[in-house]
Design brief:
Length: 199
Amino acid sequence: MQRYARPLQRLIDALECLPGIGPKSAQRLALHLLRIPAEQAGDLAQAILDARSGMRQCEVCFNLAESPRCPICDDRSRNQEIITVVADVRDLMALDNAGDYRGTYHVLDGLISPMDGIGPEQLHIRELLKRLEDSTVKEVILATNPTVEGDATALYLARLIKPLGLRVSRIALGLPVGGDLDYADQMTIMRALEGRTPM
């Protein structure tokens, strides 16, 4: 039995395919989009189409770009001696939006995951090693998630990079700001203790 008019149901179904959007959120968004002026809806649709057709991967770091190099790689004021390696563009955005980091990045486009059939050859590891050989990089920061796949990828990369004579570090893991010890799991507390810094 059809619950909504066909165009509305199609819009709800399309929105529900987006990450983090469930049925109720999709319904709310669809109803909101039907209430906005047609021009604003057209602008949104055009922005989606323009982003789909106008984006590519940066030839240096594999970030999203509209030209061969992304704005971060083109920014000569950034510290070229540090590269932070991330699994995907979302991680790059999260780190860069924090505002303090002024180095460069390298996007792997995934993590090593044998269960999913993803090995090192499916990631941008070869390109990273080539970058490290051809540059003045002194430190590589491994910023993969603290999951089995993230840890395995970081360990694999560390083994490849250390023989090049570069400093290899891993982002600190542990308790979030404002977190309570009594709510943290054992692994989080252990990592917080291991990653402690002097005061």
